Amino acid sequence: MLRFVAISSLKNRYFWKVTVKEIMERRVMHMDLDSFFVSVERLQNSALMGKPVIICGSSDRGVVSSCSYEARQFGVHSAMSAKLARQLCPQGIFISGDMDAYSKHSRIVTEIIESRAPVVEKASIDEHYLDISGMDKYIKTATLWAHELRETIMQQTGLPISFGLSNNKTVSKIATNEAKPNGEKYIDLGLEKQFLAPLSIKKMPGVGDKTYVQLRSMGIEKIETVQQMQVGLFQRVMGENGVLIWKRCNAIDNNPVEPYSEQKSMSTETTFDKDTTDVQHLKRMVVSMVHELAFQLRKQEKVTGCVTLKLRYSDFQTHTFQMKIPYTASDHVIQKKLLELLDKNYTRRVLIRLIGIKFSHLVNGFNQINLFDDTEEMVKLYQAMDKIRLKFGDSAIKKAGGLGMGRRGEGHLPPGKDA
Ligand code: DCP
Ligand code: MG
């Protein structure tokens, strides 16, 4: 039995095609929906408008995933415990989430953007990067185009959204955050560093609580201070991560906008020693592969929005079956969908030589995103299993469904990037 795991990735070819000048003069737009989960709830119940609304999964688990700007005035923020949120904002309206609805609206927004923009990267459930370079030459000014797109999204979905526009992803993301809620911010070419300079270093993506404390202890509060430092000095103090932070502070970010089609996906497949028609065996194999791949997904802090089942018959004919699913990284949710695909499509009882699964439409996610379809016990179980796997390796732990799926004769490639 042979099993391969692959994580495909964008190659560097983007950089072969463009000049440095073109990179410097790109127009990269970042769009992010305002208090996304709350806004979807408000579409379904207009009485929530203007009120402090807090989405926090089922009450026993209690972590805030999204909160309205009215709730933020009381000091509530995402990732805070619901218990503390209740203390800070007793008049708040607490709602447990509905991931199906959020995924549906997330996809509607993506469709609108993809139908209009040339190059789109969906970065998380509610944010997109768009490369709209060259727009000025051919259509209208990039700023007007961006403004009209935002208006269209709001009109067609009823969801408030903000954006930032500059020559790179980092600056545009920060500009979006500065524009929120319900705003837009344009950074003219050449003014990127000037825009960043007065902002707190905490606003820089990649500067978490720990790094912030370290920077504060060095007397650094504003991005401007990093801009004035030598990169070598900053690297010596901060380590390798320092170079990345320094570059971002200096508005240097050449990362391309990566469309779905070129983005990472994850797959794994197993070739049987002996071709089989045993459905139970195939199902156990699916469970075992999901278990392995979902762990990789969580390790990368991603969620998947699309699963694919691959079947290769003994005559080498290969068929794939795809299904869009609510964004998740939970074994049991993904497993259910893939087993449905198997049940529906493996009806011919022809000998199977290879079975494979793939997760695509990967976006950055948060642990909280899974809270809506998991019980608290399930979340704790995943966390415990992942900890053991991280410490002792993936084979250290198996769920019952995958037991008996030994690695007899199996050639196993560790997850890695495709060449
Ligand atoms: N999310 C989550 N857990 C977190 C952060 C976010 O489940 N710790 C979910 C809920 C959010 C959605 O992801 O609605 C998008 O995250 P954002 O950071 O964009 O937060 P919001 O859209 O809620 O607010 P903002 O207006 O600041 O973008
Ligand atoms: Mg948002």
> Measured on Cα atoms, how large is the radius of gyration?
23 Å
* Biggest sheet architecture: 6 strands, antiparallel
SS field, number of helical segments = 17
- Fill in the CATH topology of the domain at 263-402: Dna Ligase, domain 1
Tell me the strand percentage band.
Answer: 15-25%
How many angstroms separate the termini? Answer: 24 Å
Number of strands: 14
CATH class of the domain at 263-402 equals Alpha Beta
Bound molecules: 2'-deoxycytidine-5'-triphosphate, magnesium ion
Poorly predicted segments: 8-16, 400-419
Structural class: alpha+beta
Overall residue-averaged pLDDT value:
85
Characterize the structure shown.
- Helix content is 41%, strand content 21%.
- It is α+β, with helices and mostly antiparallel strands and 419 residues long.
- Among the domains are: 36-98, 3-Layer(aba) Sandwich (MutS, DNA mismatch repair protein, domain I), CATH 3.40.1170.60; 263-402, DNA polymerase, Y-family, little finger domain (Dna Ligase, domain 1, 2-Layer Sandwich).
- The longest helix has 21 residues, at 279-299.
- Bound molecules: 2'-deoxycytidine-5'-triphosphate and magnesium ion.
- 2'-deoxycytidine-5'-triphosphate binds at residues 32-37, 65-66, 78-79, 125-126, 180-181, 366, 368-369.
